[in-house]
Amino acid sequence: MLVLKKFMSKKAAFTLIEIIIVITIVAFLSAAIYSGYSRLSGTYNLALATDDFGSKLSELKNKALYSGDNFCYGFMIEKSALKVVKAKFLNPVEKCTGDYEETEQLTGEDLILADVKLNGQRFDSKVITYYLPLTADTFLVGGSDLAANSVFEFKLKVRGNDRGEKVIYFLPALAQLTDTNPL
After folding, report:
1. 12-178 is classed CATH 3.55.40
2. Is the separation of the CB atoms in 173 and 149 below 8 Å?
3. What is the mean pLDDT of each run of 10 residues along the chain (183 residues)?
4. pLDDT value, residue 79
5. What whole-number distance in Å separates Cα of residue 170 and Cα of residue 180?
6. What CA–CA distance (Å, rounded) separates 59 from 20?
7. Which residues pair with 158 in a beta bridge?
8. CB within 8 A of 157, min separation 6: which ones?
9. What pLDDT, on the 0 to 100 scale, is given for residue 161?
10. Cα 105 from chain centroid?
11. Which of 54, 71, 86 is nearest to 172 (CA)?
12. Does residue 110 contact residue 159 with C-beta atoms inside 8 Å?
């Protein structure tokens, strides 16, 4: 019994080294969990933002076809911003007026448009693409009608997530979004 009391009195507390080791292990585990969580959170935010971006682009064709308000609906790419625009429809030859109204910003606060290509060609100038009412034919302002197999390539990033970017492809003729280049 005396031996047991002696043993218990010596082992009743942790040594400083044991406490430091436990704190170090907890710190390493916390750092690993936090980095994994932040990476997962950034990937989720990017996926959510690009899905929303894609659905809004796809809605434009339906607006032109079914709204009945005689407007051309489209998107404008200017610098690193992508905006939804509408303009008054004139006729099938002249198409839409040069005056447009910006109705919504698709990129900006959270979603950044890092790069844009049309059919593999990068462009830096302002581009407006419209869907015509009733037919939903697509055309570039100042250019020609878009071919049925035209593809916009958008490279998107989420602000604050330096690691992640996503490339999506938009086929205007079909108002369809895809993760792989169809060309």
Report:
1. yes
2. yes
3. 54 81 92 78 75 81 83 82 85 79 76 80 74 78 70 80 77 80 76
4. 73
5. 10
6. 58
7. 111
8. 46, 111, 112, 114, 164, 165, 166
9. 66
10. 12
11. 54
12. yes
pLDDT for the residue 21: 93
Taking the C-alpha atoms of residue 148 and residue 151, their distance in angstroms, rounded to an integer, is 9
DSSP for 77-142, written as a single string: EETTEEEEEEEEEEETTTEEEEEEEEEEESSSSSEEEEEEEETTEE--S-EEEEE-TTT--EEETT
For position 87, what pLDDT does the model report? 87
The reported pLDDT for the residue numbered 20 is 92
What is the distance between the alpha carbons of residues 165 and 156, in angstroms, rounded to a whole number?
6
d(CA 36, CA 176): 33
d(CA 103, CA 65): 17
User: What pLDDT is attached to residue 163?
Assistant: 65
Which two three-digit tokens encode residue 65?
């076809």
138 and 173 in contact (C-beta within 8 Å)? Answer: yes
Residue 15, SS3? coil
Residue 142 in contact with residue 152, Cβ under 8 Å?
Answer: no
- For the chain, the residue count is 183
Q: Residue 50 is encoded by which pair of tokens?
A: 């690009």
- By the 8 A CB rule, do 64 and 73 touch? yes
Q: 73-109 burial, b for 16+ CB within 10 Å, e for fewer?
A: bbbbbeeeebbbbbbebeeeeebbeeebeeeeebbee
β partners of residue 170: 152, 177
